[in-house]
Amino acid sequence: MSEHTNTTPTDSDEPGVTVRTHTELADALPYLLGFQPDESLVLVAVHGSRGRFGGRVTVGIPTDPADWAVVADAVTDALVTGSTRRHGLPDGIVAFLCREPGPGENGTTVMEYLRPLAQHLRLAAGARDVPVVDALCLSDHRCWSYCCPDPACCPPEGSAQKPPGTSAVAAAAAYAGMTVRGSLRAMQRRLLPPDDGGDPRWGTALDTACCNLLPRLVDECEAAEVAEETLTTTADLITRLHRLPRVKDPKAADACDDRAIGTEEAAAVIVGLQDRETRDRAAEWMEGPLAPPALRLWRALARRCTGAYDEYAAAPLALAGWVAWSSGDRTEARVALALALRADPDYLFALLLHHACDEGLAAESIRRVLRRAGKDRGREAVEVAGTADPATGGAGAAGTPDVPGREGGGDGKGTSPSRRRTVPLPSALRRPGSRGGKAVVPRPFGAGDQGAGTVRPGGAGLPPLPVRQRGGRPGTGPGGPRAPYGAGTGRGPSGQLPLRSSRHGRRSSGGRGPKGRG
């Protein structure tokens, strides 16, 4: 086989890892992705005469072989289109088909079972004038090539892979600064509810929180109080997790966090985060010493969205993806954002973050927006406090609402659609066959924070927490512009995770476009 260098076309000045055999190529895959793929199809673009690795796309392998042709065409189009847009048409594609044997299977039977999928990939790539230079099946710690006919190079029983971390590729990758976060399934397990649904009290607490908070969330007068309560509870929980002793084992650390978070307060925060403006304020816990406990909190809340409340996980999952990205961990960010889109394919906040992360944008640009939004809220609060009329309670002239920057009365007419408060309903409360039912109430255009402040947790040197002053209206979150592409991604043909690429690949078409929520 030809040799390949594990660098992107734009990273040629950085240390690279050269692979020359099929087993070395298989050993390099976890370092290309940052995790060990499970039940996954991975495509990697190849550029230049030396075969430098570029964009890569990962998608779950559909359980129904009837979907393979559609998935192969979609994932190939995502890779080729994204790579062409950024660095020109790829000179080739390397495909990895990863699946562990099931009961009564071995690696050879898995390889033969996935052979039609490899053929669909070769046809899809050929239709786009890009050859598949190699297609490997990885199963049972062995690898097979669907493109190499030489039994001396690729024996029928497959080539054995070395244990993780012991190959020459692993040593070279470690020297180049590449790390592996573990398996994809293990990373997802930290963000998803337990297989048995978890504690039954979680669902009961969410039922109670919905009954108590949803009527208040859609009421203009009480929505600000719910937002304040949500952010205050969130600040308390982040402070509590920050003070816990550090636990190295991820499973034990998650269990420790779960014990530290009360059932009722977790349910109240989950429901409160369904308001997009409250969620945007919560996104300001993104850096400094409070970013790690904030990430742990969002993980813990996502794990509690079980049963009818699975779609409610989109908010904490998107926040987990944002904090991970802001902290420099793009691998976990992509996993969390993909899970958020699986929970709610129309969740605009996750769509925008997923697209920005895939396009290689700097998280600092979003952090600046959030910092500026916090400063603007504080400035507006000072201005309002200085101009308030004590006799009228700050309402100004008769018939004029207490809204900065707007003159005249407000009777609800002409309300901007972008300022409508949208709250999703749990699936148990929706009509059969409907998805994403929402309770909607118009909000006055230009409504901003009338009182914004910060609460500092215990401990010296910790950054302030963004919590509204009591009685203030929720402010406008950063939101950001719409994604530059058209429709967002939806569920794959077999309900798999949305396609994702570390640099160039786009999510597959066919999903539903954003509806403005999130």
From TrEMBL:
<feature type="compositionally biased region" description="Low complexity">
    <location>
        <begin position="384"/>
        <end position="403"/>
    </location>
</feature>
<dbReference type="Pfam" id="PF13830">
    <property type="entry name" value="DUF4192"/>
</dbReference>
<protein>
    <submittedName>
        <fullName>DUF4192 domain-containing protein</fullName>
    </submittedName>
</protein>
<dbReference type="InterPro" id="IPR025447">
    <property type="entry name" value="DUF4192"/>
</dbReference>
<feature type="region of interest" description="Disordered">
    <location>
        <begin position="377"/>
        <end position="518"/>
    </location>
</feature>
<feature type="compositionally biased region" description="Basic residues">
    <location>
        <begin position="501"/>
        <end position="518"/>
    </location>
</feature>
<feature type="compositionally biased region" description="Gly residues">
    <location>
        <begin position="448"/>
        <end position="461"/>
    </location>
</feature>
